[in-house]
Amino acid sequence: MITVITQAIRFGIVFLYGSTGEILIEKSGHLNLGIPGIMCLGGVGGCMGAYWTYQAGAPAFLVVLVAVLMAMLFGGLGGLLYGVFTITMRCNQNVTGLSLTTFGAGILGFWGTQMGEKEIMFAPASRYAFTPSLFFGNSTPDNWFTTIFMSHGVLVYLGILFAVIVYLILNLTRTGLSLRAVGENPAAADAAGIPVIRYKYVSCVIGAAISGVGGAFYLLDCTRGSLEYMIDAMGWLAVALVIFSLWRPNISIFGSFIFGFLYILPRYIEGVGLAEKELLKVIPYAVTALVLIVISFFNKKETQPPAALGLPYFREDR
Amino acid sequence: MANSEKHVKEPLVHLTRRMNVSASFAWMIRIGAFILSILVCCLISSLLSDKVSFGFFFKYLFGGTFGSSMLIMNLLRDLAIYLLLALAVTPCFKMRYWNIGGEGQAMMGAFGCSLVVAYASGKLPVWGTILLSFAAAVVLAVFWAVVPALFKAKWNTNETLLTLMFNYIAICLGAYLIKKVAPMGTGILNFQDGTLASLGVGDFWIIVVTVTVLTVLMFIYQKYSKHGYEIAVVGEAPNTARYIGINNKKVIVRTLLLCGILSGIAGFLLVSVKDASFLSDSTSQSTVAGRGFTAILISWLAHFHPLAMALTSFLVVFITRGANQIGNMARLGNSYAGMMVGIFFFFIIATEFFINFKLNFRPRAEKAAPAGAGPKPAGEQEGTV
Questions:
Q1: pLDDT, mean over chain B
Q2: What is the DSSP string of A135-195?
Q3: N or C: which end of chain B has fewer CB within 10 A?
């Protein structure tokens, strides 16, 4: 049971990174369906960074740092691309996002194939850098509490930290208030003197950068450096988690554990047929659909998606 | 105000919306972007791999799609399936109902068809199985399309997100069905009988003829029928629609019913006619294999015009098949095609910007060259013609 909970936390963090980034983006009124692609790009960047620094013999701390920065760079570039298309060029957000997903998944697959041919392995770099010893050392006692809460790699805690910071910025600062205004009613925000375009760009790029770390985390920590091409499936669950947590990073911290639990449950459950295990995978999506229906039924202002979500903003339009 | 204007720097580019865009101008930009995207793909490929030269790239790009009559038939068949999926979602988009659940709806169609074939073949006569599987495909796809529409009509539930979730629920259900029917199998259900393919009917003619007829019907429906007009009014101005006595909710549900029927036919064609197999997996190729998502793009690029969609789906199929061929020949792996298709999509999406907006450069006394302002210089040049 303790193993299940520990694993649930680890896999949940992938969704947490993705959803924290996506919440930031959606709060600016942009529905980025390219999150799966951005997570793939982040995965590529993170693996590259970790591999290079590991080969250069850098200490564990530096390996992690460079991996995270590279993941953020790659993810951020994906977000910038999305931003140029949807903010400046006012293209349809759904279409752009889906193309970005195709593109990102293609890049990861292509790059992975090339690395496979050159027989470059990422497992050593990840084993070296993403073990708990970096954070708490080996001196921690061995009981259920430390196993659940203190046995993870450093990126797990970074993910929670990101979510808390985004929550605080969104809810307690003037910047966050302005950002939410941009997502609710960009014309009013513009009239109030908020630089709408700048806010949209910053949130799209930073949000994508945070999501990118999720991809790197999945490849380097969850799969221990073996290149799996399942990141895009993780990305869709991250988008689902945004809705599940009602666009609030503080709820999504707990939501991510639930999603992580549901995601790994089929692996650990016994006495259930293979078919039923497939059926269990429906639960996160089904629950999210239910949440959507319930929030629309109660129609409370606090639980709605940002009002201008998905709509392009052009100042000269009526 | 006049005082402060002196301090404000005038931006380099000022955007204005184009009001009357001629069709020929729009198509010129699109064709220009298409050619440019292929050149960029070619350039990137030759940088990525030593094996790919310009000659190699174009040889297999065209060879992979037009190399033989067999390949051309496959091209048309694939084109037809993309077109059908795009036709299904088009009236929804026209109504500004962002149904991105085409993937899931077609998946449910394929699911319904497979369900009947898996359990009824052998117990019923072949034609009975086929008819029943067709009915099941349509019923399940309609159900999958109409349920989110009901919630949209009743409580204004966000349809983009809800249909997105429904896609993945459908894919998971498909995986469940496969494991239920063949627990130890390879993850693919192959049908020996009970499908049109097992009767030895060629997939090409059935698919191409069905889709051609449906395309023409959809064109007439959208352009000349009362329903088509109502869809356009509900999309453009819901309040006007209410004022002139259109029941918006009824129109939404009715349109999604139509969408479900077409998706169901697509699912049936994919399982019963094309492959005689069913495959559901969120990570690798599956029966619908992301075509439902691509169909959104096809429909959107053609401005929801059924006949123009034939052309846009041709472009998508052409680039996909060509890139696959290049990837195979240069041994670049399966994902190479995805990457190239992604680049192609970006170029085509960008055309909308140059069609909808006009770039007005800041007038300069010395008339410096306005270089590097936009991400796509070629489109700009066309834009200023």
A1: 83
A2: HH-S-S--SHHHHHHHSS-HHHHHHHHHHHHHHHHHHHSHHHHHHHHHHH-HHHHHHTT--
A3: N
Asked whether residue B372 carries a pLDDT value surpassing 70, the answer given is: no
ipTM: 0.87
Across A150-182, b (16+ Cβ under 10 Å) vs e yields bbbbbbbebbbebbeebbebbeeeeebebbbbb
> In angstroms, rounded to a whole number, what is the distance separating the alpha carbons of residues B349 and B316?
12
Looking at the predicted structure, is the pLDDT value of residue A84 above 90?
yes
Question: How many CB pairs (< 8 A) connect A and B?
Answer: 169
Polymer length of chain B = 385
Residue ranges per domain, chain A? 2-303
What residue has token string 């999150």?
A35
In chain B, which among 51-110 make CB contacts under 8 A with chain A?
A: 98, 100
Residue B2 has pLDDT above 50, yes or no: no
CATH no. of A2-303: 1.10.3470
Output the pLDDT for position B280.
67
Give the three-state DSSP class for B17: strand
pLDDT in tens, A150-190: 677 788 888 999 999 999 999 999 999 999 999 999 999 99
Average model confidence (pLDDT) for chain A? 86
CA A186 to CA A198: how far, in whole Å?
A: 12
- Asked if A281's CB is within 8 angstroms of B175's CB, the reply is yes
Contact B132, B198 (CB under 8 A): no
Contact A49, A70 (CB under 8 A): yes
Confidence of residue A122 (pLDDT cuts 50, 70, 90): confident
Is the separation of the CB atoms in A310 and B98 below 8 Å?
A: yes
Task: Tell me the C-alpha distance between A206 and A230, whole Å.
Answer: 23
Say how far apart CA A111 and CA B37 lie, in whole Å. Answer: 21
Amino acid at A173: T
Cβ A102–B180 below 8 Å, yes or no? no
Angle between helices A154-172 and A2-27 (to 10 degrees): 40
Q: What angle do CA B232, B234, B212 make, to 5 degrees?
A: 35
Distances in whole angstroms, Cα of residue B106 to Cα of each of A269, B124, B159, B211 = 31, 25, 17, 15
pTM above 0.90, yes or no: no
| Res. A141: pLDDT tops 80 | no
SS3 of residue A193 by DSSP: coil
Residue of B nearest to A228 (CA): B283
Please answer yes or no on whether B172 and A236 come within 8 Å at the CB atom.
no
Could you tell me the pLDDT band of residue A130, with boundaries at 50, 70 and 90? low
Using the structure block, give the residue that is written with the tokens 């911290």.
Answer: A253
Q: Say how far apart CA B352 and CA B369 lie, in whole Å.
A: 24
Q: Between helices B102-120 and B291-301, what is the axis angle to 10°?
A: 140
For B62, the token pair is 């065209």
Tens of pLDDT, residues B96-115: 898 988 999 999 999 999 88
Among B156, B174, B44, B158, CA closest to B106: B174
Q: Which residue of B has its CA nearest to A312?
A: B353
**Which residues, including other chains, have CB under 8 Å from residue A284's CB and lie 6 or more apart?**
A237, A240, A241, A244, A259, A262, A263
Round to the nearest angstrom and report the end-to-end CA distance of chain A: 58
**Confidence at A6, pLDDT banded by 50, 70, 90:** confident
What domains are there in chain B, each with its CATH number? 70-312 (1.10.3470)
Contact A94 B157 (CB under 8 A): no
How far, in Å, CA of B361 to CA of B13, rounded?
5
CA distance B304 to B313: 12
Which residue of chain B has the CA closest to A285?
B165
A313 in Cβ contact with A189 (< 8 Å): no
In order of A135, B200, B239, B244, B306, the CA distances from B233 in angstroms are 60, 46, 9, 10, 18
Q: How many CB atoms lie within 10 A of CB B38?
A: 21
